[in-house]
Design brief:
The longest helix has 24 residues. By secondary structure, this protein is an all-alpha fold. It contains 6 helices and no strands. It is globular.
């Protein structure tokens, strides 16, 4: 699992840098992430850790976020949904869901503080990839420390 988490951290770090600078996730990063995610799923299935239906289940959190992007006319970025789909493939649905919840909480705290000190406006757009990166590091740390995730 450490190789998958290391790849995930590298993927999220690259996405975070471009998301902060350009508010966009490059297609090449998504393509590399999909290839890595499919490799991770294939490995887990081959090793007997997962079943074929885990691919659909792993993509579910990202598909929900992607649907939210469509419903909100991309106030939630579509690239965020794409990244979470890839994270689901790389990490499985349980870790992906934990990561998404933690990232959402961190983003909400950041936005609340930013609004409170008037550094952000209600119309401000904040990149989500950095929150996913920090959350991934936290989830990975919990897993290494012996947590169930």
């Amino acid at each position: 699992m450490e190789i998958s988490m290391a790849f995930t951290m590298l993927f999220l770090t690259c996405c975070s840098i471009t998301d902060c600078r350009k508010k966009k996730i490059p297609g090449i990063f998504l393509l590399i992430g999909i290839v890595g995610g499919m490799a991770a799923v294939s490995w887990r299935i081959w090793q007997g850790y997962d079943h074929w239906y885990s691919v659909l289940l792993s993509a579910a959190p990202g598909l929900l976020l992607w649907g939210l992007s469509v419903l909100t006319e991309e106030k939630v970025g579509r690239g965020d949904g794409d990244m979470v789909i890839i994270l689901g493939l790389l990490l499985g649905w349980e870790r992906c869901t934990a990561l998404l919840c933690a990232a959402s909480l961190l983003a909400a705290v950041y936005a609340g503080i930013g609004l409170g000190i008037r550094k952000l406006k209600k119309s401000s757009r904040i990149p989500f990839a950095p929150f996913l990166s920090v959350s991934c590091a936290l989830v990975w740390g919990m897993a290494l420390a012996g947590g169930r995730l």
